[in-house]
Every structure is written in C-alpha cells, then in structure tokens.
C-alpha cells in the first residue's frame, strides 16, 4: 500500500514540528516548510528519518505564491501526492492598531492568510487526483472572540475560520475535508513576549489549569487526519476550556 504524505508549513519548531513528528510516527511521509530556519528544518528531517518515514524539506515564504509553487513542485516530484495539508505558518502582532504601520498590516495578512490560500490552491489538485484529502488550518480562539491589542492577528485568524467553513462546503462533494483548530495559549515561542507573571495569571483563568503544549495540537491534527469524512467545516477550539 502506498504511503500517504502530509504537508506541514511552519514546521521548524512549535506546533508544526510536533505535528510532523506525530504524523510521521503514524505512518505518513512528510513534506515540511519554514521561512528561514533551514538548520532546524534539517534537524526535523533527521528525526523523521529515524521513524522510517520519507521527508522533504523546503525553505521559503508560503505567503509568496512563487515560493509555495516551488514547494509543491518539489512535493509532486518527491512524493507525487498530498493527502493532508496542515496550514500552520503564522506570525503574531501585539500593539494598538493606531500604532501599526500599513506595511506591518500587509505582512501579517501575507504570512497568515495568503499562505493558507496559496497552499490550499496548490494542494487541492493533488487531493482531487486521489479523490480524498484533509486540510487542517491552525487558527486561534482570537479568531472567534477577538483580542485587545491583537486586532490584526485576530482578523487573520477570523479570516482563516471563515475560509475554512466556506472551503469545506466547496470541497465536500470531492471527499476533501477542511477543518480548523482554534488554539488557546500554546507554550511556543510565539508567546515568548508574555512574562512569567502574565503566563501564571492566564493559567489561573484556564479550567484545565495549564497552558497547551504543541503535542496537544499535534494529537488533534492526527485525529482530524484520520477522522470520519462527515467531519468538515468545523472550527474546533483547543483551549482547555478557557473561552
């Protein structure tokens, strides 16, 4: 039986790294990208190869269509298929909207939203060829509720949520499922701007009494990758009961 391939963006660390390892341990070959951390991505490749899985890595900007197309050309050449797409590449911005420059606004839209469009557009033909596929978009609870001083980030994640629900309806007749994971506070470098006191205060608000870890998200990604085809168009909160 031919092995399936999972494509993961933003895979050099955090959620993307954990998802790549988890999916490889479940029998998937991996195609992983990041924007600049080639050395970290090469470390990931070595770890995946230890799991007897094939791994293709690519360094480039998934918000740039030419880079995304080059990545998917490499996937086509090395794997010939893309069964699961995990759109994880993303950045944050914390600050008042009146202090945000137009270039900063465009940068977060480019990184968080354009990358999802580009990768979905390029993955869908490969999924149509197999008459099946799973697209899993990594979102945030702020895309559901909004966050003060994170209006731009909230807007991109809200856009991902709406995109997920709409694309799911478009692709369901083709047996391609599209879901999003709306993460709460996950203990990654994206939240390194928070002090320990701030993190402790957040923990007190979370019914699960802890921050999430990348492996929590990776486990849900694996579940969605293998779940019933009737589960589509959902934005699933993973936040320990916080919101």
Shape: globular
Strand content: 15-25%
- Ranges where pLDDT stays below 50 over 5 or more residues in a row are none
Q: Please give the count of helices.
A: 8
Question: How would you sum up this structure, described in words?
Answer:
With 243 residues, the protein is of the alpha/beta class. The chain contains eight helices and seven strands. The protein has a seven-stranded parallel sheet, sandwiched between helices. Helix 4 links the parallel strand 4 (84-87) and strand 5. The longest helix is centred in the middle third of the chain and has 29 residues, at 102-130. It is globular, with a radius of gyration of 17 Å. The chain starts with a strand and ends in a 5-residue tail after the last strand.
């Amino acid at each position: 039986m031919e092995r399936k391939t999972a494509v993961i963006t933003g895979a050099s660390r955090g959620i993307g790294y954990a998802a790549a390892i988890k999916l490889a341990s479940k029998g998937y070959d991996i195609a992983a990208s990041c924007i600049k951390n080639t050395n970290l991505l090469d470390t990931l490749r070595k770890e995946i190869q230890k799991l007897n899985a094939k791994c293709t890595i690519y360094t480039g900007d998934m918000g740039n269509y030419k880079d995304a197309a080059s990545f998917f050309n490499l996937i086509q050449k090395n794997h010939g298929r893309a069964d699961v797409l995990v759109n994880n590449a993303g950045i944050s911005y914390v600050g008042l909207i009146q202090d945000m420059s137009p270039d900063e606004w465009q940068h977060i839209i480019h990184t968080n939203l354009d990358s999802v469009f580009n990768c979905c557009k390029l993955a869908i033909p490969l999924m149509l060829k197999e008459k099946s596929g799973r697209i899993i978009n990594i979102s945030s609870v702020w895309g559901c509720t909004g966050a003060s001083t994170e209006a731009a980030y909230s807007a991109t994640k809200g856009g991902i949520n709406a995109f997920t629900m709409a694309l799911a309806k478009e692709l369901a007749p083709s047996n391609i499922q599209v879901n999003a994971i709306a993460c709460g506070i996950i203990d990654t470098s994206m939240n390194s701007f928070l002090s320990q006191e701030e993190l402790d205060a957040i923990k007190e608000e979370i019914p699960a009494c802890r921050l999430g870890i990348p492996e929590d998200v990776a486990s849900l990604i694996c579940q969605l990758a293998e779940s019933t085809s009737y589960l589509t168009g959902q934005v699933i909160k993973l936040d320990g009961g916080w919101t």
